[in-house]
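[Structure tokenization] protein backbone as discrete codes

[Encoding] learned vocabulary of local backbone shapes

[Begin record] amino acids and matching fold tokens:

___
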Amino acid sequence: MACAFCSIVEGTLDASIVFRDDTATGFLDARPLFVGHVLIVPNTHVETLADLPESAVGPLFTRVARTQTAVETALGAQGAFVAVNNRVSQSVPHLHVHVVPRTRGDGLRGFFWPRVRYETLERRNEIAALLAAAYSRSTTGGSR
């Protein structure tokens, strides 16, 4: 099955393009949270952020930052929500970064899922230590 986002990058699937260059393509989300919701995808197919080569992370997020500024400027937004889903809630298995314009009182309440608390400070620190250990062993660009 063909990747819809690769087809948009190639120009064989219609989309409202915000920008396209050698690194990435930005286009309007077909089902936006708010008008002006942009998706930025690397032009090379990768499924998750961890699959993106480390050398491509900076260039991709430079375009994300430029898009955030453009969204705020062009739409008069007071800010933006920038997010990446990996696997869960990722409707198209091609890395994409959401840039959603925000204004106070727009109805978007924090994250889209319930928030929880750590049982204790000790448990919070245990989780931080587990993540720190995994982080020290991790790499980007497809190595896990």
